[in-house]
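Residues determine shape. Next comes a sample protein:
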Amino acid sequence: MARADVALYIVDDDPNAANSIAALAWSLGIDCRTFSSAEEFVALAPTLPPGCLMADLRMGGMSGLELQDALAEMRLAFPIIVISGYADVNSTVEAMRRGALTVLEKPCSREAIEKAIESGLEQARSAQKKQQLRTAVVRRFDALSERERQVVQLLLTGEPNKTLARMLNVSMRTVDRLKASVFEKMGVESAVELARIAADLEPAIRPPHFAQHAASRRS
């Protein structure tokens, strides 16, 4: 039975090559889908579940390198394995520079393909987990009250409690109560832990004007 967590997407205008890799993927229990052109994949990419992409370098229409550029412009982070019967030093360097995991030269061994696919799928799983965490944290932040959101944003500036109390125009006891509520709702135990989970979420939970405000206070 195919694993449904992430998928392998094969983009190759050679149906024999695409079907051969697809057969290998299915034999390994990997869900996969083939596309006969980069244009076809780009059109559907925003709707596809997380996965790894294996793309031919030279195809009629959009090339593998152009496909990498198109996905980057769309901010779609599919780990990409480039495969080609015409790979040379320049094209390999370009593919890697644009973020390819590896470049495989046709014909390549089953072991090399399996290794590349497993590496790509593992990276896709890691990206999926990171996105799920980001979604969960943003959802928690969105559930906070307006005052609690202000506390989060001010905590991320590193200001002490006394400054927070003055900026929020509340007592120190109220600051302690607000911080405790924020920590509980955000699932953290300290401001340091809050900063750690927020590091990859800006500007989602720290609007620019707060950062500017904190900077102006220090100048």
Remarks:
- The two ends are 61 Å apart (CA to CA).
- Residues 3-136 form a domain with the Rossmann fold fold (CATH 3.40.50.2300).
